[in-house]
Amino acid sequence: MAETVAHSISEEEAARYRAEFPIFDHTTYLNSCSLGPLSRRSSEALHEYASAWSDFGAPAWWARWMPKIDEAKERFARLIGAGVHEVTIAHSISSALSSVASAFEYSTRRRVVCADLDFPTIPYQWMAKEREGVEVAFARSGDGIRVPLAAYKQLVDRNTSLVATSHVFYTTGAIQPIRAIADLTHSHGARLIVDGYHSVGVFPVNVKALDVDVFVGGVLKWLLGGPGLTFIYVREGLLEELQPAVTGWFAADDQFAFDASHLVRARDADRFQLGTPAMPTVYTGITGMDMILEVDPERIGERLRLLTTRIIDSAERDGFTVLSPDDPMERGGIVMLESANPRQMVKALAARHFTVDYRPGRVRISPHFYNTTDDVDGLMETLTKLRDD
Ligand SMILES: Cc1ncc(COP(=O)(O)O)c(C=O)c1O
After folding, report:
1. Which residue minimizes the CA distance to atom 14 of ligand 1?
2. What is the CATH number of domain 47-292?
3. How far is the CA of 60 from the centre of ligand 1 (A)?
4. Where are the alpha helices (DSSP H) in the chain?
5. Does domain 2-30+296-388 have CATH number 3.90.1150.10?
């Protein structure tokens, strides 16, 4: 017990990290699941990027930028317990999933199973393949918070090619039992694709222990790197089998051979790459991921359980309906509260210097490890006052 406490993120440590984000000078930021805030370290990294561009021009690719891309891959691989050769970069989760979706064959197994609580860009990839005969089936949530394993069991069979779903639901913060979904999927000879946008940086992730086939994530939110850099993990063994039809010259085995007559794909995960990467986010993505590694995802997970429990306890005391799991171990960093007019509420909170977000019928609160208990107490007090006024 004493060991856990010594290991925990203290209020002082949280406050020290909080001071690294200038946004807190004018608002209490509790919206990391939409966009992680910019740290001073990442601001400096942007200057470093601009200097390389200014100093070198095109040779910056060799002198600075290509090595930076390798560094970014290495950081993400470390965060998910993968080999670097199993990881490549993409521009968004949508582009990552579209090249992944293009690499599978659907003629004998037409069904792709998603969850009805998934972010729309996940099922859209396969709904767009109607011409190829693909049918998307939705595992349905009974309670609007999580999707029971039984709902997947009803849909996954020998006609299923893929299960493609979220690690953590953006709508509720519920963590899915990915290992159990992987076992079910594999027992029917299908593959599992997981969108981990809301898990990496929130708690420890190990793609090998989860036994996923493909995993995507990115630096926009919890990894504090801004828009423009995501990652695709494809497990070794499956990599060589997959031939993405959505592709680009960065996917070639030797892109600088400029051999337009032959498409020879890279042997590693780079076979899923498309075109020229967005370099500013490679810089900020590295500083963001370094901060997460420095703090340690295990400690972040513990801190987020503490902060989200504090929000939920306060919300329940004040009569809000909570649309996130009760069990802290089943929860990522997101808490959803039912709200009659969430848009107006979020605006009123912004006017009182609290930044949160909304989704239809819900206010969404997402602390990170740098938030203090004063941040969440202040928010909940203001939220209750606004509702009662
Ligand atoms: C789980 C999840 N996946 C994907 C996305 C969107 O991905 P992108 O805009 O990178 O395609 C979001 C929201 O930003 C999300 O919450």
Report:
1. 34
2. 3.40.640.10
3. 30
4. 2-7, 11-18, 40-56, 60, 66-80, 93-101, 121-127, 149-153, 178-187, 207-210, 279-295, 297-317, 342-351, 373-388
5. yes
